From TrEMBL:
It is found in: Endoplasmic reticulum membrane; Lipid droplet. GO terms for cellular component: endoplasmic reticulum membrane; lipid droplet. This is Lipid droplet-regulating VLDL assembly factor AUP1. It is a peripheral membrane protein. It comes from Lepisosteus oculatus (Spotted gar). The chain crosses the membrane at residues 20-42. One of its GO terms (biological process) is ERAD pathway. Residues 274-283 have a biased composition (Polar residues). GO terms for molecular function: ubiquitin binding. Keywords: Endoplasmic reticulum, Lipid droplet, Membrane, Transmembrane, Transmembrane helix.
Length: 423
């Protein structure tokens, strides 16, 4: 399956692009407003019922029926595969209410990853853990939670950010897979008419209002078999295995695009949009012809080709930011050259990612690669006195990075290391 570009994973525009669909949507708008007002009244009663009744099969059935009146239709496939002894469910992330939907089918808790605890956290159905300084600390806390007898299973979203659920999965974080040694994947598909199921940079309140406005939203939950950890698997390898399984079940691509790449994309869109608007609204400004307008018909092909090259670089150097890879590929138009540039320019990449200002700690790995490798000498405390010594230390550092990148590529594609060295 072709690797999608990063912008294909998210929806930034809510309104229908098709003219006929937009016309039908505008005709529906008065009906949608009436539904919105009625469902807000019903939604208050759904919230009160869910708070008043104890957690049980009866409460889940009643709330599920009332949610269908609100336009949230929940379906599930293969419910017999759901293991009642499992302590951790792993799901893809599409909307800001995924945990509420899965909680209608089975009792589980989802911790609040980002945001302060309080009434809003509790009202949205999240589990309060308090302020955590790091993901590793949260993993340890959840690990203790799972070992306590009688606690409900956990539901975690390793993508840590929502996507449109149609083209690809974000790279799974490894920390959720340090909680338990066996997980049950849950594939979630969300569909609704007229508009996307989720729009980036939209608050959960606004998304809830749109959910009540639209005639219906169908949530399909598919239970997959439990996946145990193999003894030789690290947390990241365990995460990659579950990610591949979910991507095949959903029929979408498994990408190396991370949560930070999405944040960079949103930041870039925030800065580009105002500049474009201001330049087009200049007094007396005339529209300028684009110097690459003759390449417009092939822009889609070029985007796909660029996405494939970025994916190849990501497989070798997964921790390098998406924006740096794309910028270097724009100059070189060659995967091998870009990998070489990123390996040789490690210090410059660190400075560039920090914005070129402030104090940046010098480090030799590329953008935070933390895999074990031979020590590099001389260190900052034993800086070489002669140019020859400094040159040798640079060569040793390059060789260590090359060996690490080569090992990652061989392990990723299952190649024979002896055969690769022979060539």
């Amino acid at each position: 399956m072709a690797t999608p570009g990063i912008e294909q994973l998210f929806d930034f525009q809510r309104w229908p692009r098709d003219g006929l669909l937009l016309f039908v949507f505008l005709l529906y708008a008065p009906v949608g407003l009436c539904l919105l007002l009625l469902r807000i009244f019903i939604g208050v009663h759904v919230f009160l019922v869910s708070c008043a009744l104890p957690d049980s099969l009866v409460r889940r059935f009643i709330v599920r029926v009332m949610c269908s009146v609100l336009g949230m239709c929940v379906k599930q496939s293969n419910p017999r595969l759901r293991d009642r002894n499992v302590k951790l469910y792993i799901s893809n992330h599409v909307t800001q209410f995924d945990h509420n939907i899965i909680n209608l089918l089975t009792s589980c808790n989802t911790p609040m990853l980002d945001g302060s605890p309080g009434f809003v956290c509790w009202a949205r159905g999240f589990m309060e853990l308090g302020m955590m300084s790091s993901r590793s600390e949260m993993a340890e806390c959840l690990k203790q939670y799972c070992t306590t007898e009688g606690n409900l299973p956990l539901l975690l979203f390793p993508e840590e950010e929502t996507t449109n659920g149609r083209t690809g999965l974000l790279k799974f974080s490894s920390w959720p897979f340090a909680v338990t040694d066996s997980v049950q994947p849950v594939a979630l598909i969300v569909k609704r008419p007229f508009i996307p199921a989720n729009t980036e940079e939209s608050s959960w309140i606004l998304e809830l209002l749109w959910t009540l406005f639209i005639p219906f939203t169908v949530y399909q939950v598919r239970w997959l078999p439990v996946v145990p950890r193999q003894d030789s698997h690290t947390n990241q390898e365990f995460a990659n295995k579950v990610q591949e399984m979910l991507s095949k079940e959903l029929g979408i691509a498994s990408t190396q695009i991370t949560r930070s790449d999405k944040a960079e994309l949103i930041k870039r869109k925030r800065h580009v949009a105002p500049q474009t608007t201001n330049s087009n609204q200049s007094v007396g400004a005339r529209p300028r012809a684009s110097p690459v307008s003759f390449m417009a018909p092939n822009s889609g092909v070029e985007d796909v080709r660029m996405a494939q090259m970025i994916q190849q670089v990501k497989e070798v150097l997964p921790d390098v930011p998406f924006s740096i890879i794309k910028r270097d590929l724009g100059r070189t138009n060659c995967v091998d050259t870009t990998i070489t540039n990123l390996l040789e320019g490690a210090e410059e990449l660190v400075l560039d990612s920090a914005g070129g200002s402030g104090s940046v700690p010098a480090r030799s790995p590329v953008s935070g690669i933390t895999a074990p490798r031979p020590p590099v000498k001389p260190t900052s405390k034993t800086f070489g006195k002669s140019p020859a010594d400094r040159h040798m230390s640079l060569q040793e550092r390059k060789e260590a990075l090359y060996d690490y990148a080569r090992r990652r590529y061989i392990e990723k594609h299952g190649l024979n290391q002896d055969t690769d060295k022979a060539h």
